[in-house]
């Protein structure tokens, strides 16, 4: 029996882990959202749309197939999940440390830098905000595991959430689908394994 409602309640507890996770300089620019069923469905559709776009942008057949397998596998896994949490940070909001971790001389140069045109989440981002996001979503994944809820950190889920504007002002965004089933749906996925093999072949050809 799938304990869907229990997982949705547990997501609220997992949210506490996100909120209480350590933040650089004690500045909390992390936001999260527990998606409704309709929002989750819209997000799955958005992942599929982005896959279609990327396939059209590539001419190499192996790359097209790898994209299709990879993105549709994640969309299917999210669709089968009981719940989805998306977690984001205001990555364009530096702390004023002028540390150079972003690749620029200081925070002002970072803020003035041209932003790339991309369907993905355009940077650059403050390195401390990226660390905060990583710590927060890892804390969430840890709490889910403690509650025996299967989960998987997914950047495609976050990307779709960003594109849909589900976390205003947050960029980048990551996703954490949650599921209660007899078999962990996020691992040993046939499509994912096939895509992994194709990417390996593609990367091998590129390195020659």
Please provide a brief summary of the model.
This protein has one domain: 3-Layer(aba) Sandwich (NADH Oxidase). Helix content is 53%, strand content 10%. The chain has seven helices and four strands.
CATH superfamily: NADH Oxidase
- pLDDT below 50 for ≥5 consecutive residues: which ranges? none
Radius of gyration: 18 Å
Succession of helices and strands: HEHHEHHEHEH
Structural class: alpha+beta
| Total count of domains | 1
Shape call:
globular
Name of the level-1 CATH class: Alpha Beta
The counted number of beta strands is 4
Overall helicity:
40-55%
Residue share in β-strands: 5-15%
What topology, given as strand order, has the largest sheet? 1-2-4-3
Helix tally equals: 7
CATH topology (level 3) name: NADH Oxidase
Q: What is the CA-CA span between the terminal residues? A: 50 Å
CATH level-two architecture: 3-Layer(aba) Sandwich
Structure description:
- The chain has 208 residues and is α+β, with helices and mostly antiparallel strands.
- The chain has one domain: NADH Oxidase, CATH 3.40.109.10.
- The chain contains seven helices and four strands.
- A four-stranded antiparallel sheet has the order 1-2-4-3, sandwiched between helices.
- The protein is globular and about 45 Å long.
- It starts with a helix and ends with a helix.
- 36% of the residues are buried.
């Amino acid at each position: 029996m799938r304990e869907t409602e229990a997982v949705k309640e547990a997501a609220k507890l997992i949210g506490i882990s996100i909120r209480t996770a350590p933040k650089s300089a004690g500045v909390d620019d992390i936001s999260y959202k527990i998606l409704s069923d309709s929002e989750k469905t819209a997000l799955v559709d958005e992942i599929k749309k982005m896959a279609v776009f990327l396939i059209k942008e590539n001419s190499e057949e192996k790359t097209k197939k790898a994209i299709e397998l990879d993105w549709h596998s994640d969309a299917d896994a999210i669709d089968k999940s009981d719940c989805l949490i998306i977690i984001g940070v205001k990555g364009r909001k530096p702390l004023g440390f002028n540390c150079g971790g972003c690749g620029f001389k200081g925070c002002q140069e970072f803020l003035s830098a041209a932003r790339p045109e991309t369907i993905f989440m355009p940077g650059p981002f403050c390195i401390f905000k990226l660390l905060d996001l990583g710590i927060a979503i890892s804390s969430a994944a840890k709490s889910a595991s403690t509650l025996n809820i299967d989960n998987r950190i997914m950047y495609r889920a976050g990307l779709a959430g960003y594109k849909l504007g589900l976390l205003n002002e947050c960029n980048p965004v990551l996703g954490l689908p949650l599921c209660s089933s007899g078999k962990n749906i996020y691992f040993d996925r046939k499509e994912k394994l096939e895509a992994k093999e194709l990417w390996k072949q593609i990367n091998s050809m590129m390195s020659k």
